[in-house]
UniProtKB/TrEMBL annotation:
It catalyses: AMP + diphosphate = 5-phospho-alpha-D-ribose 1-diphosphate + adenine. Residues 36-160 form the Phosphoribosyltransferase domain. The keyword Cytoplasm applies. Transmembrane segments: none annotated. Belongs to the purine/pyrimidine phosphoribosyltransferase family. This is Adenine phosphoribosyltransferase. InterPro entries: Ade_phspho_trans, PRTase-like, PRTase_dom, UPRTase/APRTase. The gene is apt. Coiled coil: none annotated. CDD domains: PRTases_typeI (cd06223). Homodimer. Pathway: Purine metabolism; AMP biosynthesis via salvage pathway; AMP from adenine: step 1/1.
Amino acid sequence: MENLSNLDYASYLKGWIRTVPNWPQQGVMFRDITPLLQNPKTFRMLIDIFVHRYMGENIDVIAGLDARGFIIGSVLAYELNVGFVPIRKKGKLPFTTVAEEYELEYGNATVEMHTDACKPGDRVVLIDDLVATGGTMMAGYKLLKKLGAEVVEAAAIIELPELGGGDLVRDAQLPLFTVCSYDGH
């Protein structure tokens, strides 16, 4: 039986995240969580970290950001016995939506959620696979607040501190939990 501390868990899981250089464009070091999800042990360990963090915290809803936030968020919602809300890219939801535009490196993007996705006062954890520039996370946060939700915490597997997104989230007074981070390359 392995005996790992919290730091060891992060290091162990980080070892299962593949770095793909120069994708999707030159100079980008893409952090691919696919190998971590493919391995049943590491996937369970990852989910358990989030479950233990939020169990007993009176959470009503997990909101997952399109698309990898759906993977972690839906499993976490199931394990916590709470609802799951997808925050999708513009034009993907069939019902009445509320939208939030945010800046990308080159241009803008928009995310949406259904207007009945949560109720005023719902305690929500907002989750994605990665926090880079923080634009998507902040857009999701603003959407949830528009509907009156209380976003208890933002969460992700990975933070890329050099891109400043984690600081942007924390500067908005939104607590941020990440399992591991990558400084530089």
